Amino acid sequence: ATRGCPFSCSYCFNNAYKKLYQGKGPIVRRRTVENAIHELEEVKTRYSPSFIRFGDDTLFTCHDAWMEQFCREYGKKIAIPFYCLIHPQFVSEPIVRLLREAGCHSVMMGIESGSEEVRQKVLNRYVSNEIIKKAFALFRKHGVKVFANTILAIPDTTLEDDLKSMEFTLDCQ
User: Fold this and answer.
1) Is pLDDT of 14 > 90?
2) Local structure of 18: helix, strand or coil
3) Is-contact 103 76, C-beta < 8 A?
4) 108 strand-pairing partners
5) Dmax (CA) of the chain
6) CA distance 80 to 150
7) Rounded CA separation 90/23 (Å)
8) 112, 119 contact by CB (below 8 A)
9) What is the bridge-based pairing of β-strands 29-30 and 145-150?
């Protein structure tokens, strides 16, 4: 449904991808809702999947008309439980409600490090622990399973940093 990511995290291929394609059009692109739903309808008819996994870097980057239309159409025409990736910074109560109503079963959000300093200075990932915890709590509140990615042994970090990351990941449940 979408391609690209608005972030430039140091560990992610999207950082190099952005540099490679700089000046050649928008990095973050979305198909029309009609086009994406049409393809999903074909997949549903041909293969009868019981679950859909969206491989988009981040399926939604904001609460806008595209997201609302996609969720509405997906819920009506596809109605198959799905999984997607989303950045904690984009999570809000209305977005979680829309996703749940569309059939979102589970999401993955990156924690990467329990240390805000490591996330910012080493990983180029500018999101606070408070925002991450709130995002995880919102999905749990609405019955959507939530998974996390946490990176251990990041260059220039210590065992204490890794233990802090594990503790923070457990705090997020």
Assistant:
1) no
2) helix
3) no
4) 85, 147
5) 51
6) 28
7) 26
8) yes
9) unpaired
Distances (CA, A) of 53 to 4, 82, 83, 90, 121: 17, 6, 5, 19, 32
pTM of this structure = 0.92
How many angstroms separate the CA atoms of 53 and 22, rounded?
A: 29
Tokens 């009868």 -> residue? 48
Residue 64 — very low, low, confident or very high, per pLDDT cuts 50/70/90?
very high
Q: Using an 8 Å Cβ cutoff, are 157 and 113 in contact?
A: yes
Residue 98: HSE in the Cβ half-sphere, 13 Å Cα cutoff? 21
Measure Cα distances from 96 to 60, 61, 69, 161 in Å: 11, 13, 15, 30
Higher pLDDT, 22 or 77: 77
Contacts of 112 (CB under 8 A, 6+ apart): 9, 11, 119, 123, 125, 149, 150, 151, 165
H/E run at residue 168: helix 159-172
Number of Cβ within a 10 Å radius of residue 116: 16
Enter the DSSP assignment of 148.
E
Q: Could you give the C-alpha distances from 144 to 14, 103, 104, 136, in angstroms and in order?
A: 27, 9, 7, 9
